[in-house]
């Protein structure tokens, strides 16, 4: 892409950039898959090993590493006694067959940006107002333990700690049980934030198409995620006559199609999917008794989302009649289109201008920990381009030049926020 050739007028030399790229390659080895991706689901062995690696890296940079009660990992630069923190980071957990960049890039960029910002401030004798913290939020992906964005939801008080610790994976292991032996369950609430910043790959094609290096995120799409249980009756898949069947998998399949048809009614404004399904008893000669599925609606218009919810509920009734099943629709996680603070967008825009980086305003369709944080403290969210928009896929890719431009950009934002 043309954006990959854009070089920021960074004050850092190429050695520091080389170290960043080396660190990025080292971190991509945790949970590496044969096809060039990663599998680092929350609190699994590769996630734990990678967190230990990050703790060492942060300590080498002179930061104090602490954990809060839900296992969010922080690297603290304490330079203004008693002052709150500019909290900068993302997540290192991943989907089961994921790319190397989603989340991980943002945590490593935060580690380097906070270090660069702190050293530049010190070298210039600046007198900043805030302390700095790197954060690796626990369980952003929610693939092993739903809901997603769990660590930042607990940190901001949106999700009770006890509820989060009690969530169980498919094997029946709870978050608390998975974290307890790791040493990542702290006994305090984590540092107090004054501001938050996050950088992430775009996971779409907007920046690539316009040849722009930096996305200044001004708002997110709204989301509603449902846990759906379709109840039928177990039967012999050969012997039972068709009229007698109450096939839960037929009901679930009709819901998958209904979700797609819903999106087709609002082209470009509504995205829908069923991404996960558990079929019981999931056996070849058995009509399914029960299916649990997760249905995800995203819209960049809250009225469209409310209308989609209404139509979905009508479709559920139709599916119940057609497949002779009963359907429980439970809204499990939702957020609205609250904008990011305009002051943060302007601050980031002046940073991009100083560095000579092309930039544009953009909305995030995917959820991020910053979506939780922006309701808590003023928050700056930045994007760098994703090649062909590929994400939640092992083929995810962002050019080195774009990662480095993003790092310079994040450093500039951290310095500006830290100055107060
Ligand atoms: C998380 O990434 C989400 O978009 O739900
Ligand atoms: Mn992510
Ligand atoms: Mn993700
Ligand atoms: Mn995400």
Automatic annotation (TrEMBL):
SUPFAM superfamilies named in the record? Bacterial exopeptidase dimerisation domain (SSF55031), Zn-dependent exopeptidases (SSF53187)
Q: Please give the CDD domains that the UniProt record associates with this protein.
A: M20_bAS
Q: Which domain of life is it from?
A: Bacteria
Q: By its UniProt entry, which InterPro entries does this protein fall under?
A: Amidase_Cbmase (IPR010158), Bact_exopeptidase_dim_dom (IPR036264), Peptidase_M20 (IPR002933)
Keywords of the record: Hydrolase
NCBIfam families to which the protein is assigned, alphabetical = hydantase (TIGR01879), PRK09290.2-1 (NF006772)
So what family is this one in? Belongs to the peptidase M20 family.
Name of this protein: M20 family metallo-hydrolase
């Amino acid at each position: 892409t043309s954006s990959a050739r854009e070089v920021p007028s960074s004050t850092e030399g190429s050695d520091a950039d080389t170290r960043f790229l080396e660190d990025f390659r080292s971190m991509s080895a945790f949970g590496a898959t044969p096809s060039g991706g990663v599998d680092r689901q929350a609190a699994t062995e590769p996630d734990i090993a990678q967190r230990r690696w990050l703790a060492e890296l942060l300590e080498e940079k002179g930061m104090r590493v602490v954990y809060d009660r839900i296992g969010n990992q922080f690297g603290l630069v304490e330079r203004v006694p008693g002052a709150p923190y500019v909290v900068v980071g993302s997540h290192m957990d991943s989907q089961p067959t994921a790319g190397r960049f989603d989340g991980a890039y943002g945590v490593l960029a935060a580690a380097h940006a906070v270090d660069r910002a702190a050293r530049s401030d010190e070298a210039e004798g600046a007198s900043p107002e805030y302390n700095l913290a790197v954060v690796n939020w626990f369980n952003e992906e929610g693939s092993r333990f739903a809901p997603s964005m769990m660590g930042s939801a607990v940190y901001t008080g949106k999700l009770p700690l006890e509820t989060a610790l009690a969530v169980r994976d498919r094997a029946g292991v709870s978050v608390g049980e998975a974290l307890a032996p790791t040493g990542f369950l702290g006994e305090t609430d984590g540092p107090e934030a004054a501001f938050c910043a996050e950088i992430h790959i775009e996971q779409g094609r907007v920046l690539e198409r316009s040849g722009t290096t930096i996305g200044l995120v001004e708002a997110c799409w709204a989301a509603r995620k449902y846990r759906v249980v379709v109840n039928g009756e177990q039967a012999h898949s050969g012997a039972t006559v068709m009229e007698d069947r109450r096939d839960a998998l037929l009901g679930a399949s009709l819901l998958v199609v209904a979700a797609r048809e819903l999106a087709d009614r609002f082209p470009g404004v509504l995205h829908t999917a069923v991404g996960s399904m558990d079929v019981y008893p999931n056996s070849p000669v058995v009509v399914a008794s029960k299916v649990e599925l997760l249905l995800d609606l995203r819209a960049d218009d809250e009225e469209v989302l409310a209308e989609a919810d209404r139509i979905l509920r009508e479709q559920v009734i139709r599916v119940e009649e057609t497949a002779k099943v009963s359907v429980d629709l439970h809204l499990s996680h939702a957020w609205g289109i609250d904008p990011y603070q305009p002051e943060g967008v302007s601050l980031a825009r002046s940073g991009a201008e100083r560095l000579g980086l092309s930039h544009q305003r953009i909305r995030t369709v995917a959820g991020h920990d910053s979506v939780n944080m922006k309701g808590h403290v003023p928050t700056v969210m930045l994007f760098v381009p994703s090649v062909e928009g590929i994400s939640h896929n092992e083929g995810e890719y962002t050019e080195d030049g774009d990662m480095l431009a993003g790092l310079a950009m994040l450093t500039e934002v951290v310095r500006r926020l830290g100055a107060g």
